[in-house]
Write a structure and sequence with these properties.
By secondary structure, this protein is α+β, with helices and mostly antiparallel strands. It is built from five helices and four strands, in the order αααβαβββα. A hairpin with a 2-residue loop joins strand 2 and strand 3. About 5% of the residues have low confidence.
Length: 156
């Protein structure tokens, strides 16, 4: 039994060290805060490590509810990078035809000339737009943005 208590205290010390490192990086706390957290944790279940309940995010919005970027739930994810791409069109060809492609080959797409491009974020359609040139670089002017509630429906 002495070994189990030693292991538990070593685990608690390792956890305290991790908290100390994290808090020192953020500059928001000190050893007193870590000691208070650890004392509260070990006293709650008579020496065993207990876990605090995980904070739950609010339920997803209903189809007719407005979705906003305000509020604490989205603050956590607002700085996460995502891939945005523009799709001119697509087509399906055989591997035989793919291997025969060379410089100057033309591939017919499923879109008509002048149709808007699809704007995809991580593969999910969020808008339509048209190609523009800005400072000698291509860009896209959004002509139709899909509502946030519609985007959430597509994720399900």
């Amino acid at each position: 039994m002495a070994n189990e208590n030693d292991i538990t205290s070593m685990e608690e010390q390792a956890l305290a060290d991790e908290w100390a490192a994290a808090l020192s990086e953020s500059g928001d706390g000190g050893q007193a805060d870590i000691d208070a957290l650890m004392a509260g944790d070990s006293g709650a279940s008579g020496g065993g490590a207990s876990r605090l309940p995980m904070e739950e995010f609010g339920s997803s919005p209903r189809p007719n509810e407005q979705v906003s970027l305000e509020g604490p739930n989205l603050d956590v994810i607002l700085d996460i990078p995502v891939n945005i791409s523009m799709e001119v069109g697509s087509t399906e060809i055989s591997i035989r035809n793919l291997l025969q492609l060379n410089q100057g080959s033309v591939i017919e797409l499923d879109r008509l000339a002048g149709e808007p491009l699809d704007v995809l974020v991580n593969g999910t359609l969020i808008a339509h737009g048209e190609v523009v040139v800005v400072n000698e670089k291509f860009g896209i002017r959004l002509t139709d943005v899909i509502s946030p509630s519609e985007r959430i429906k597509k994720l399900r």
